[in-house]
Amino acid sequence: MNRELITATYLQEKGTPDTAIILGTGLGIMEKAVTAGTTIDYSDIPGFPESSVEGHSGKLIFGSLGGKDVVVMSGRFHLYEGYTPKEVTFPIRVFHRMGIRTLFISNAAGGLRKDLPAGSMMLITDHINLTSLNPLMGPHDATLGPRFPEMTAPYSRTLNEKARNFAREKKITLHEGTYAQVIGPSLETAAETRMLRMIGADAVGMSTVMEVIQARQCGMEVLAISAITNNNDPDNYEPATIEEVIAMAEKAGPTIAKIFSGVLEKK
Fold first, then answer.
1. Which pLDDT score is estimated for 108?
2. Higher pLDDT residue, 236 or 104?
3. Which of 43, 63, 110, 231 is deepest in the core (most CB within 10 A)?
């Protein structure tokens, strides 16, 4: 039995959710929206990596949200921690082995448009992979899905429409745009910010794209929302500390959780 199956078998004894949720930097506050059942530290899960980043608590929560059974990753793994793309996306393959077919993702991101101030939210409709890496590199495992998964709609049009409708009903301002992933951990220079704008990015962060690629290979539907934690204005560039990033993510977190809950209620 391979490592993913060992982990999946262990976790299936804790619950059988149909949706997995990944919480980004500073977004652990979203845990409060989940009616928790079993909580497990990553260090206690066979084969699971461990997060080393501030703002990521490193625990898996089985519970319910929007009347549906979910499993929540409070803390994710990043390329800049030294993990490979395969290690970053290990949990996605485990979720696939568990029979999970829907993935909700949140992240902290820098806004690249003037109408994306700190504390706002952006529904991700497409992405740009600027890492030069891909979790599907290497030997192919046909049990996960196709070798060359298509990416015409990596973010579910159906789930995005449900998120839009819910936000409209509840009078929540939910921006939309294209997300770019860089490796990090250094933040972008003014020149890099100008480049990102020129190539069509609306927000930039250091996560998410690897997980989405893996999820799409596995046939999962994906919904992703960025908490905009700072605005990258290259003509008036201000430093963003990790404390400020976490504070702004915490501001947006409860509303993102509300949207996720609303979408789940309509699933």
1. 93
2. 104
3. 110
Strands 68-74 and 19-23: parallel
Tell me the β-bridge partners of 175: 122
Provide the sign of the torsion angle of the four alpha carbons 259, 263, 264, 265, taken in this order. Answer: positive
Helix/strand/coil percent split, the chain, to 5: 35, 25, 40
What is the average pLDDT score of the chain?
A: 92
| 53, amino acid identity | V
Q: Are 203 and 112 in contact (CB under 8 A)?
A: yes
Question: Tokens standing for 249?
Answer: 């993510």
Q: Which are the contacts of 8, defined by CB distance < 8 A and separation ≥ 6? A: 94, 95, 97, 98
Whether the CB-CB separation of 61 and 31 falls below 8 Å is answered with yes
Burial class (CB in 10 A: 0-12, 13-18, 19+), 187: middle
H helices of 138-241, where? 157-169, 190-198, 209-217
Say if residue 215's pLDDT is above 70. yes
The reported pTM is 0.95
Residue type, 70: V
Tokens 């301002």 -> residue: 173
Which one, of 196, 208, 180, 195, lies nearest residue 79 by Cα? 208
Angle at 19 between CA 59 and CA 250, to 5 degrees: 50
